[in-house]
Amino acid sequence: MISFRRQLLCASLLVAATSSLAARAKSEPAGIAYQGAIVTDAATGHVLFEDNADVVNPPASMAKLMSFAVLHDKLASGALTLQTPVRITNEDARMGGTQVYLDPRETFPVDELIYAMMIQSANDAAHALARAAAGSVEAFVELMNAKARELGMTHTTFRTPHGLPPPSRRVDDGDLTTPRDYALLCRYLVAQTEVLKYSSVRNRDFGAERKQGPQHMKNHNNLLGKVTGVDGLKTGYTEKAGYCLSATAERNGRRVIVVVMGSLGPNGQKDLGKTRDLKAIELIERGFAALPAASAVKSIAAAPALPGSAPEAPTIKTAAPPAASPEQASTAAGTAFTFRVITPEKKP
Fold it and tell me: Which of 39, 129, 138, 249 would disulfide-bridge 287, Cβ 3.0–4.6 Å?
């Protein structure tokens, strides 16, 4: 009888412990890795991995990659040069979100504003460049959509040059694309433009001649300098888009492209892109492991030089600018997290 009671007690304790563990697991959910993702071979465009690659999602500040593509066309045609002066307007200065705090009394060359757009993810710089390149932001957006059609991005619609959410806050009223479409854009940019000249820069100063001193810019791509071969391309974040990343890495003459969209932290919370970045690292490694041995693609040195391109300017550290409004920021606000990555040794 005593033995039976002991067995019953042990069984009861086991059930209670199991229930407790199950409840704890439910209360500590993992981060949402993404709404959609894709990995491609940059040399061939071959898909190495995909999961919900055709899900439609706002690109947030990744929209600036298409802005760069249109600007490259303008530079290649001679309609603009890297030294073309851009006079800042009141409309540029009112963009808000992530910015370099442009003032209507200022004028900057195209090259300087491109660095601000690609490193700082400055919405005001993207707006100023769009206006200067096409005469109006509306005309520039038309060129963005024409470029998307040219590249075969059949599920993409742009409505801004910067990726900020629409005034209505309705997702359908803003920029929309898919991971698969963005992989096409990234492959085009890597092979046909000088995008890596800008996207690979980790730190740079903006506005060296400003009366208040230059603004120090830090690239929002946390993988730069931490993951072997990563040299681009662009992050993005809004509340509706989640954390997005178009990343690329080159190792031993082989290059992969990774696009992750709609990532969030545990319970769907903001996590400064940690879940997104860790998943992107995993997909980069997975992509290289799946590459055929003969895969190769043009390196940054082989990309066509833009007219008037100058050597990289030295960087001088200054105090960081005020934080952008989280509601309007098209990239994640806050201090970047730190993570460690053990990267594979390069083959001789």
Answer: 39
- Measured distance CA(277)–CA(256) in Å, rounded: 15
β-bridge mates for residue 244, sequence order: 236
Please say whether the structural domain 31-302 has been given the CATH code 3.40.710.10.
yes
Pairing verdict, β 242-251 and 230-238: antiparallel
Active site residue 121: yes
Tens of pLDDT, residue by residue over 230-285, are: 999 999 999 999 999 999 999 999 999 999 999 999 989 999 999 999 999 999 99
**pTM tops 0.70, yes or no:** yes
Query: Which residue out of 64, 74, 274, 279 is catalytically annotated?
Result: 64
Token pair belonging to 276: 């997104």
**What's the CA gap between 62 and 118, in Å, rounded?**
9
Vertex 58 angle, CA 57 and 59, to 5°: 110
Query: What is the C-alpha to C-alpha distance for residues 117 and 204, in angstroms, rounded to an integer?
Result: 12
* Separation in Å, CA 47 to CA 43, 138, 156, 250, 290: 11, 34, 19, 16, 10
Catalytic residue among 61, 67, 246, 263: 61
Dump pLDDT digits (tens) for 37-78: 999 999 999 999 999 999 999 999 999 999 999 999 999 999
Active-site annotation holds for 61: yes
d(CA 211, CA 99): 18
Output the furthest CA–CA distance in the chain (Å, rounded): 95
Domain boundaries defined on the chain: 31-302
Q: Which is it for the CA torsion 332, 141, 177, 170, positive or negative? A: positive
101: left (phi over 0), alpha (psi -120 to 50) or beta: left
Among residues 67, 121, 199, 295, the one annotated as catalytic is 121
